[in-house]
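A common beginner's mistake is to predict each chain separately and then try to dock the pieces by hand. The better habit, illustrated here, is to supply every component at once so that their relative placement is modeled jointly.
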Amino acid sequence: MEIKPEFGVEKRSKSMDPKKKMKFELIDNNLSSLRELGRKLKAIHRGAFRRKYENLLGLLELEVQIPAIMALAHYYDTSLRCFTFQDFQLVPTVEEYEQILDMPLNDGVPYRHFEQHVSIPTLSPKFLRMS
Amino acid sequence: MSSWLVAIKDTKGFSQRFLEAHLRQLSVKEDWETFMDVIALTLYGVMLFPYVGDYVDIVVVDIFVAVRTRFENLVIAILADTYLALDLCYETRVRKRYCCLPMLYIWSMARNGDNVIEVRCPIELVTQKKLEIRGSKEWAQSFAGLNQLWQPSWKQRKSLIYSYADFPNVPLIGTKGCINYNPVLAQRQFGYPIRGAPNLLL
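With all components supplied together, the output reads:
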């Protein structure tokens, strides 16, 4: 679907309408017990973990303030797929997400989801060694 | 292991509680190699690609294997799922949506506010800022007062993807569908029409 910026003005006034009540909720899972588990990893393993999975543990330690996200979501404009503020727009971009996660795209192929699930038996002995 | 799969909604998955119990066992056994893989899988499931509360969707196993064996990059999939969640929240009757909130939070907070510290990693930047806990009203005011754009210190100028092949804008493939976004709107945010990054302390 093509997004046409010129439709912005009309849509913007709609999304900026303070009377429009928030009808939805973006939710986050409870991560506190995982945080505790993550802290069990000692420095030496943390380094190894970071090499394999980037800064996932740093992201885990972050306490997200849900009201902030909800306030931000008020500014989301579905027709433009951006956040429209008073006099400018902000768009979450691939480049910014790359930098936040520290996963440069030129280092690898992007993950493409094709609905082909890996069979669990091939996974378990190799990665998870569940007994 | 497949016997631990639970049916949830329209999919199957592992419960977070089960994986956490498994992690505790592994930490007692001090099997840290396996511990790291299991915690990564769990984090992919509940943090980066959440779908149903407290469960790790079976799709995440596919993602995990793609990363571990083929070193695939998850950035586009996470961004696509975030856009899809935002869109679906507005357009459908499903009022609750899971998406990768920590990423969206960092994305917005790294540019919002004062006391900018020179760090290169945006995650550290937001953690170090120690944002005070505010209520929804205060946050709404803070976003309403957001009227200037500045380049966060972690953002080094680099080329920007504007479009891909014949597709309009930038197409993104997520785990729940495909979507695109409009990077032309992001020009200012990368400081392009203005030559040179505006001063951070403006």
